[in-house]
Amino acid sequence: MSDFLAEEELLAAIDMGSNSFHLAIARLDHGEVRKVASMSEKVQLAAGLDENNYLNEAAQQRGLECLSRFVGRLGSVTPNRLRIVATNALRQAENSQEFMQRAAEILPKPIEIIAGREEARLIYLGVSHTMANGGRRLVVDIGGGSTEFIIGEDFEPIHTESLQMGCVAYTKAFFADGIISPKAFDRAVAAAKKEIRAIASTYKATGWDTVVGSSGTIKACRQVLVSLGLSDAQENILYSGLQVLKERLLKLGDIRQIDFEGLRDDRRAVLPAGLAILWAIFDVLELDKMAYSDGALREGVMYDLLGRFRHEDIRDRSVQAMMARYHADQRQAERVVSTARQLFDQVAPTLQLDADCADLLRRAAYLHEIGLAISHGGYHRHGAYLLQHSDIPGFSQVDQSRLALLVASHRRKLKAEQKEQVLKSGGMPLLHLCLLLRLAVLLHHSRSDQQVPEVQLAIKDSQTWQLGINDHGQANLLFLTDLQEEQQQFEHWGIHLEILNTSAQLHTSKQEG
């Protein structure tokens, strides 16, 4: 990735929500992201999940057709200035990989399935960049499959949560027949309250100065309340207005009868479920009013992408935070990072490893020992578990899986099943990164600041690596023994590692002379 993003250059984000897919294209204008084009389509991916969380063919086709139309608008946006994120529906789908493989044939870069708390962080980033007022704010975003709650100040979130309740999922669960009965509405509200109570005490204890809602469901409710004259002068959502809207919906009794001014046709079917969730939020968190922000996940994704160009990458802050949390040895990590980068630079052109691979290797090198906080025995497995299952701001699920595989493979035996996992997750580039990390760690087994042997790594062919070593004539039998054992591990993954001790050869030739 380039080191900067020039003014006027375009960047874009695709947000694959559980209800709607969104495309936003923007340009950088004096440090701010200015939207120049957008598209939004109701796909209702979550509606295609069956009782076993398998995404049906009809939903997959809706999604793929929508993405094809989006790609037609991306001609002026280079792939490194685009991010594509997917949320709850694909988080839940057991066959998400099937859909992603089909989408990969259409899209210019891979989809990132992001965790719920990462979604919340990005939503807050999008909202906070569109709000003028400061102070501590509570941000709420009701999506198709999940609802995100964030408390933050300025651009920094304090608490992030993602709860399993959304307008599409609740429509299926409580209003599938289209009937808006008091019983169905009360059941939906009760289910939402149960979810919200799990976070209510923590959020109330932290407190907030203002409340802001974002995205389609809250926008739709606000538009209806404004059209009915049930909002205040600033067009905020009021608890009293929600009460009146609830009564009107119950009086209509059927989703097909909904015809409020300002409500889009594709929002009618999910309005009762969305209102039930919003009602529960107001009730449990004791809210009186809620403002609305046009900022949302896609804006947050673009600001996050902009931060990466400006060397303000949240992923690097997250790596350092994990190292601190698990008391990783910073000096040892820096040694391994430096050597890993040296090895990477020597072979990257031949192995066709790009800047993203360099970033992945560097972050894995920093994190390779975090498992020591749990136990010395098998700490590489403990570290991999932490990376796979933690909420790590800035990282997609694929990112975390690849980091976990790198850490899991950096020591001990390399097995055939590990190789299969690595190839499935990242292909040959990820396998090569695993081997580079192993060599970097091995070179620093002494954990000292003393100079390590000079090494030169070369790729002879697709199955042969050659490692030249110059230890300045100071024989290190333990190090050479470790390398010989490492040769056996490389063979398990189909790579022959040749070791050339150039200093020993030089010493022999001098003696012969």
UniProtKB/TrEMBL annotation:
GO terms for biological process: polyphosphate catabolic process. Residues 314-487 form the Ppx/GppA phosphatase C-terminal domain. One of its GO terms (cellular component) is plasma membrane. Its cofactor is Mg(2+). Its EC number is 3.6.1.11. One of its GO terms (molecular function) is exopolyphosphatase activity. Residues 25-308 form the Ppx/GppA phosphatase N-terminal domain. InterPro entries: ATPase_NBD, Exopolyphosphatase, GppA/Ppx_hydrolase, Ppx_GppA_C, Ppx_GppA_N, PyroPPase_GppA_Ppx. It is a peripheral membrane protein. Transmembrane segments: none annotated. It is found in: Cell membrane. It is an enzyme of class 3 (hydrolase). It comes from the Bacteria. It catalyses: [phosphate](n) + H2O = [phosphate](n-1) + phosphate + H(+). Keywords: Cell membrane, Hydrolase, Membrane. Belongs to the GppA/Ppx family. Homodimer. This is Exopolyphosphatase. It comes from Alkanindiges hydrocarboniclasticus. The lineage of its organism: Bacteria, Pseudomonadati, Pseudomonadota, Gammaproteobacteria, Moraxellales.
